[in-house]
C-alpha cells in the first residue's frame, strides 16, 4: 500500500508543481538604441543606379562604421549632372538623423520614425519640410534597394520611387 501511494505521488507531484508554478512571460525584444539602429544599417552599403526624373540616378552609400554613414548621389541627364546630393546619417541625443545636403547645402534633418533591422527598412520623417516629408529606405532583396520620397503630412499625392539596382 505504501509503495502504491508513493508511486501515485511521484506521478501526480510534477503535474501539481507545474500547474501551480508561476508562468514566465515570453521575453519581449529589447528596442535598439539609436547607435545600434545606425550600426545595423549596413544593408544600405554599395553603389546603386536607377532611372528616374528623366535620367540615370546614381547613389553610393558607405558603411555606418564609426557612427556615421555617408552617401553621395547625382542625377545624370544626357551625360550631364543635373542634380547632386550628399546625405549624412548620424545619432544625436539617442536619435538617428538623416541630414540631406541637396546641391551641397545642408537641409533640416529628418528623424528616424520607424526601423526594422530584419526587414532592412528605415523611415525618416520631417513634417515641417516642404517635399518630401518622409523618406523610406527599404532593401527589398540583395539586388534591389527602394527609396521612396512622399508627403503624408501635407496630403499631397506626389510620390517619387527610386528602384535601385546594384552597379556591377
Explain the overall architecture.
The protein is mainly beta and 168 residues long. The protein has a single domain (34-166), classed as Calycin beta-barrel core domain (Lipocalin). The chain is built from 2 helices and 10 strands, in the order ααββββββββββ. The termini are far apart. Residues 1-21 have low confidence and may be disordered. Residues 43-150 form the DUF6265 domain. It holds the Pfam family DUF6265. Residues 1-23 form the signal peptide.
The helicity comes to 10-25%
The number of distinct structural domains comes to 1
**Number of extended strands:** 10
Per DSSP, the total helix count is 2
- CATH topology heading: Lipocalin
Spatial order of the strands in the main sheet?
Answer: 1-2-3-4-5-6-7-8-9-10
What would the average pLDDT be, to the nearest integer? 89
CATH homologous superfamily identity:
Calycin beta-barrel core domain
In percent, how much strand structure appears in the residues?
over 45%
Distance between the termini: 82 Å
CATH architecture: Beta Barrel
Rg from Cα: 25 Å
InterPro entries: DUF6265
Protein name: DUF6265 domain-containing protein
Organism: Engelhardtia mirabilis
Signal peptide: 1-23
Amino acid at each position: 500500500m505504501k509503495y502504491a501511494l508513493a508511486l501515485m505521488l511521484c506521478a501526480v507531484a510534477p503535474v501539481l508543481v507545474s500547474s501551480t508554478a508561476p508562468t514566465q512571460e515570453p521575453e519581449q525584444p529589447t528596442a535598439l538604441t539609436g547607435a545600434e539602429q545606425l550600426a545595423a544599417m549596413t544593408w544600405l552599403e554599395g553603389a546603386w543606379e536607377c532611372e528616374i526624373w528623366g535620367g540615370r540616378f546614381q547613389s553610393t552609400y558607405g558603411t555606418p562604421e564609426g557612427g556615421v554613414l555617408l552617401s553621395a548621389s547625382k542625377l545624370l541627364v544626357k551625360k550631364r549632372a543635373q542634380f547632386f546630393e550628399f546625405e549624412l546619417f548620424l545619432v544625436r541625443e539617442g536619435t538617428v538623423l538623416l541630414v540631406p545636403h541637396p546641391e551641397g547645402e545642408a537641409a533640416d534633418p529628418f528623424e528616424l520614425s520607424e526601423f526594422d533591422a530584419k526587414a532592412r527598412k528605415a523611415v525618416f520623417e520631417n513634417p515641417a519640410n516642404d517635399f518630401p516629408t518622409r523618406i523610406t529606405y527599404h532593401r527589398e532583396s540583395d539586388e534591389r534597394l527602394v527609396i521612396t520620397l512622399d508627403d503624408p503630412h501635407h496630403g499631397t499625392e506626389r510620390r517619387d520611387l527610386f528602384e535601385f539596382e546594384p552597379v556591377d
